Amino acid sequence: MRIALLQLNPIVGALDANASRIEAAVRAVQGRVDVCVTPEMALTGYPPRDLLLVPGFIAHAQEVASRLASVLASGPDVLLGMPIPSGVEPGRPLLNAAVHLRGGTVGQSFAKTLLPTYDVFDEDRYFEPGRTVGAVAIGNCRAAVSICEDVWNDPDVWTTRRYGGDPVAALRDLATPVMLNMSASPYAQGKLAQREQLLAHLARKYGVWAFYANQVGANDDLIFDGRSLAFAPDGTCVARAAAFAEDTLIVDTGAPYGGVDPWDEAVEAEVFAALVLGVRDYARKCGFTRALLGLSGGIDSALTAVIAVEALGRDNVTGVLMPSPFSSAGSLTDAEQLAAAIGIGTHTLPIAPVMNAFDDVLAGPFAARPADVTEENLQARIRGTLLMALSNKTGDLLLTTGNKSELATGYCTLYGDMNGALAVIADVYKTLVYRLAHWVNRGGVVIPASTIDKAPSAELRPNQTDQDSLPPYDLLDAMLVRHVEQCADGPTLVAEGFDPTMVHQVVHLVRISEFKRKQAAPVLKVTPRAFGTGWRMPIARGTWDQA
């Protein structure tokens, strides 16, 4: 069987445009393959979320699928991912399905069996589960069809399983030589290794060719890395599609094969590519061509600017320098040098006059009250207001520049540095920010060395550093990984050897900062658990988890 995995980048909700993309990909391999396999929900884009609740959207999807089948009547078979009516009452109205396009008609369908409801997934909200993995006839061969989560519950792989059944076990009864999996698996660090180990195991266990067609591109906060895969029955990875780019992977199960090299891209390169794709697709799919951001001379804004230039081009990015009386001369120089190195235009807007105006207006209500964090927050909010004004006036996309360590602990100002439409590095811990900065500079200085070497500071008061308010970032990030991503509570962190005073501080800061995160811009997800769609902590909660 000659199989083409169509690694596509759909726009959620753009049914006609997505169908055109699928048609073009199929026509490009016509005459060379027996079947084309799209990713999960390729017609709608994944995740379509509450668009699935709109009856007209579902009806139009059926019409577009029928039209696509007709225009591809003379081409290879196509397995198309899309929602279809479940026909079940009582029950959810839809199935997350694959439909078989052949000879101009929409034929056999296959429904996803395991519906994830963890992290960023909420499929039980919309879909009725399928009953089992089925098989489709392609020429003289048969292939089992599964959808994403269906392959992620093998009892030999997972010591703790989310579901009672393992739909892929039906492969034994189906006795098919090929398994096709249609996926929309979001990117996170380390995800590719998990996928490859799982698929290699399934291929060996069932003695089948295992194919995995994954979506690529970014939709809101989720980034899909592609890297579609093909495994021979002995568990050899025989083909891997491009990372973070559209691609078509063609494999002939009857041809001799050899293994592909293991994925050896550095974590820094992988995360950088993911963030670039996240910015590029968010801008493109939301109708933006240009972006702007505040440049403080710090490492976070420098890294964000480099990512923005890679995503949109230097002529389409503007940096805004907003020095205050507390800004060091070195920070202003660092911001200017960074802008020159990446070739972006800048505006310099000193904020001292606005600070003075606020001081004058608030002199009465603030009389006899000492200066405190209020005045620091005002500086951030002045900058945020200026950035929003520029974004409104120019139509440019405003990018926020805060990192995950700051967002976790609330070391950020609501309606200030949190202003913006997309939080580019808000799922990147500060320690990884430094690693990414060094990686950016691997071929020559882009981010000034002084930006990397100086003590991080918000520069909202004289001689301020981040470590006046936070633990050292290496310790902070280690605690946050355990607390945020792995759900370790305060007593557990203390038992693991972290300083009790630091643990108390960090757990407390994470808890009381939830209201800020609820109002944050969408966060591009690159870790297993980001402050985005998959984070559902209450704002009002008790303190049972304090150490």
Automatic annotation (TrEMBL):
Residue intervals of the CN hydrolase domain: 1-262
Top-rank taxon: Bacteria
Pathway where it operates: Cofactor biosynthesis; NAD(+) biosynthesis; NAD(+) from deamido-NAD(+) (L-Gln route): step 1/1
Residues noted as binding deamido-NAD(+) in the record, renumbered to the chain: 377, 406, 516
Swiss-Prot/TrEMBL keywords: ATP-binding, Ligase, NAD, Nucleotide-binding
Keyword flag rRNA-binding: no
Residue positions binding ATP: 294-301, 401
UniProt catalytic activity: deamido-NAD(+) + L-glutamine + ATP + H2O = L-glutamate + AMP + diphosphate + NAD(+) + H(+)
Active site as annotated: 40, 112, 148
GO molecular function annotation: ATP binding; glutaminase activity; NAD+ synthase (glutamine-hydrolyzing) activity; NAD+ synthase activity
EC number: 6.3.5.1
Cellular component annotations (GO), alphabetically ordered: cytoplasm
InterPro entries: C-N_Hydrolase, C-N_Hydrolase_sf, Gln-dep_NAD_synthase, NAD/GMP_synthase, NAD_synthase, Rossmann-like_a/b/a_fold
Annotated binding of L-glutamine, by residue: 118, 185, 191
One example of a Gene Ontology biological process annotation: NAD+ biosynthetic process
Reported function: Catalyzes the ATP-dependent amidation of deamido-NAD to form NAD. Uses L-glutamine as a nitrogen source.
UniProt-listed NCBIfam families: nadE, PRK13981.1
Protein family membership: Belongs to the NAD synthetase family.
Official protein name in the record: Glutamine-dependent NAD(+) synthetase
Gene symbol of the encoding locus: nadE
